[in-house]
Amino acid sequence: MVCAILSASRCAPKLTTKGGDVLATFLSLGIGLPLHDTLKANGITESTPVQEKAIPLLLAGKDVIAQAQTGTGKTLAFLLPILEKADPHVEHVQALILTPTRELALQITTEAKKLLAQLDDIHVLAVYGGQDVERQMKKLRGKKQIVIATPGRLLDHLRRGTIELSTVSMLVLDEADQMLHMGFLPEVEEIIGCTSGDRQTMLFSATMPAQVRSLAKRYMRNPEDVRVQGKQITLKDIRQIAVETTDRAKQSALRELIEQQRPFMAVIFCRTKRRASALNAALQGYGYLSDELHGDLSQAKREDVMKRFREARLQLLVATDVAARGLDVEGVTHVFNYDIPHDVESYIHRIGRTGRAGEQGVAITLVAPKDRMHLEMIESGIRMPLEKRRMETAQPKKEQTSQESRGQRGAKAEQRKEKGRPPVRGQGGGPRSNSDSRRQGQKKRSQAARSERPAKRNARTRSR
């Protein structure tokens, strides 16, 4: 379908300017003047490699598999062709964009609405968990040429019969590898089965695991491959350290590293939502300004966490890989891999949160014995060894103590030892605590009472 708002100016010959500016670039890709003007108004002055490769193919109706990292401009690479081809006179769903997380769905929706600021006859609707279902159902009954959704909530509406996808002619699977890691592929396949058989399919992914390739083979027609290198992370600006420890001692090791490194702002990566939540609770118990970011949080909570982190009101952000996708916050001085990533691309993506804009950053990876194979793989992938350290002082038994003693009294005792001062009572190695003194006093009084009893009996006998 060709958008009815395509004017003669959109079909004009390709323009070239002496400077090769954005007008020539985007018009030469097939993007019309209305969208071009909106791009320019939003400060987008040049196209990116993934846009230059993908947009002409998508405008021509080709299926496309694009391997591109976050931050390469891939969102506009599929949004611009969709907006060009959407028909404002047809009110049913024409384009469906599937994303793994609510954050990404909202981000894409925001971008789409910016581009449609001057084209108010095309409507975009975000469908994701955490919203009121009844309210969503009401919106689904209105105009909605473009739907941006997470698999779980969209499938819920399909089963309720509140959305019809047989009219979808353009389907985008964004961050396909993350949908695989989150276990969404069965839902994705069920959703694909509800769309038109002659649709155009676009698959965007940072990595291409075998299962993602298999999905593409089953549901795409002669797809064109687009492969774009992401912005190269300057590893020379990031000091990379591997700290050998054990899984039981990780929490103690991390706390000691935080005290040593004194990060201004740090992102701490965990493998699972449960581990992220448990670690954040422990860090808060130690008295750190910390919070967690993962898929189990409500949308309002996630937005609040990110707002506080961007404003530097949080020092530590404990996150999972999926939740931190696209995380771009100034001032991050340290990245801690509490759980080692299992592939090189994830490692590079994680540590790329620091060492930006010419600033020096530090990336510290905690390595348990079972992680050594992954460490070797990472070193091979980045073609350089990591600086090695061993945490001899980590004491896992301390993890069993209360949060108060672990967090506050323990930290104070360590600080006093570092300064050469004697420990405060009750913080280990010093004089007995008040509770110890009370117990000792009770014991002496009890012994004294027992010794007095025979003397009192003898006195009563003599008085008789």
UniProtKB/TrEMBL annotation:
Residues 379-464 are annotated as: Disordered. One of its GO terms (cellular component) is cytosol. Residues 55-226 form the Helicase ATP-binding domain. GO terms for molecular function: ATP binding; hydrolase activity; nucleic acid binding; RNA helicase activity. Residues 237-397 form the Helicase C-terminal domain. Keywords: ATP-binding, Helicase, Hydrolase, Nucleotide-binding. Residues 385-401, 411-421 have a biased composition (Basic and acidic residues). It comes from the Bacteria. Belongs to the DEAD box helicase family. This is RNA helicase. It comes from Brevibacillus panacihumi W25. The lineage of its organism: Bacteria, Bacillati, Bacillota, Bacilli, Bacillales.
